[in-house]
């Protein structure tokens, strides 16, 4: 079962969809999420959020100043500033 991922900034949704893997940087270090991951609430550090879609396509965004929440197979990343890298 894929992750349902939502990456939002203060003023817009940056990306949402299904993913097989998401790696984000927290103040504790990098953390990876796959389906079935235990619940997590963490403070987001400035850095990249790397998303691997279920199709294998890789999405990279810069994010800072926020938090992430993993509950069930739903991962929400809320950042003060976030933007996709072209």
Q: What report would you give on this structure?
A:
Pfam families: ATP-synt_DE_N. With 86 residues, the chain is mainly β. The protein contains no helices and seven strands. The protein has one domain (3-84): ATP Synthase, domain 1 (Sandwich), CATH 2.60.15.10. The protein has a five-stranded mixed β-barrel. The radius of gyration is 11 Å and the shape is globular. The mean pLDDT is 97.
Sheet with most strands: 5 strands, mixed, barrel
Name the CATH superfamily assignment: F0F1 ATP synthase delta/epsilon subunit, N-terminal
What is the fold named in CATH at topology level? ATP Synthase, domain 1
User: Class by helix and strand content?
Assistant: mainly beta
**Mean pLDDT score:** 97
Q: Looking across the biggest beta sheet, what order are the strands in?
A: 1-2-5-6-7
Number of strands: 7
Write a brief structural summary.
The chain has 86 residues and is mainly beta. The protein has a single domain (3-84), classed as ATP Synthase, domain 1, CATH 2.60.15. Helix content is 0%, strand content 72%.
Topology:
Layout: E1 3-8, E2 13-26, E3 29-33, E4 40-44, E5 47-53, E6 58-71, E7 74-84
Parallel strand pairs: 1-7
Antiparallel strand pairs: 1-2, 2-3, 2-5, 4-6, 5-6, 6-7
Characteristic terms for this protein:
86 residues; mainly beta; ATP Synthase, domain 1; five-stranded mixed beta barrel; transport
